[in-house]
């Protein structure tokens, strides 16, 4: 049964590889929001690593990526997935060589990293049409709950990012209460990227 598929950080098959082959490279909304353009490739700290999908995409486009994950369970899945990708060799091994993984709360770790760009993609409160929430996201929510301290994480990121903070947020959701207006916004299909320049 599909529901029983165990959650896995998989960098060698499935959706991640499909996105690698057919995703659209630097023209996608996330790389544009991060500032991957005009030959620029900033270093990125992904403060909410999850299954590492966004971090892997950015690393596949040449960025050096530091993943931070505070959940023991999610961190273990990521460590296993990265190890498997290294063992697989070839292109995926080259990509994950640009990724490092940290275990802890990004609010505590970010200041010591003096990051250039920080990506924040917190777990959101359940939507009314929760049947539409992807199975994987529901599985992650069962493990980590909702990230009720997302505003504090954003403030920590804004306090130390040298170039920008990018907040990944559902397209139709209200803005995060208490957060300043973004400098600009890049719209994806169901997701938007609010970009806060800190230069
Ligand atoms: C929506 S998922 C991120 C998905 C990710 N963007 C991907 O591509 O797979 C959010 C993750 O961020 C983690 N997280 C949330 N707040 C955090 C914090 N302050 N420090 C570290 N990890 C955090 C959660 O445990 C969860 O695994």
Structure summary, number of beta strands: 7
Task: Let me know the largest β-sheet.
Answer: 7 strands, mixed
Measured as a percent range, the helix fraction is 25-40%
- The rounded Rg comes to 16 Å
And the CATH topology? Rossmann fold
Distance between the termini: 49 Å
Strand order of the largest sheet: 3-2-1-4-5-7-6
Structure class: alpha/beta
Bound heterogens, unique: S-adenosylmethionine
CATH architecture: 3-Layer(aba) Sandwich
Number of distinct helices: 8
Tell me the CATH superfamily. Answer: Vaccinia Virus protein VP39
H/E topology pattern: HHEHEHHEHEHHEEE
Give the domain tally.
1
Question: What features would you highlight for this structure?
Answer:
seven-stranded mixed β-sheet, binds S-adenosylmethionine, globular, Rossmann fold, 199 residues, 7 strands, 38% helix, alpha/beta
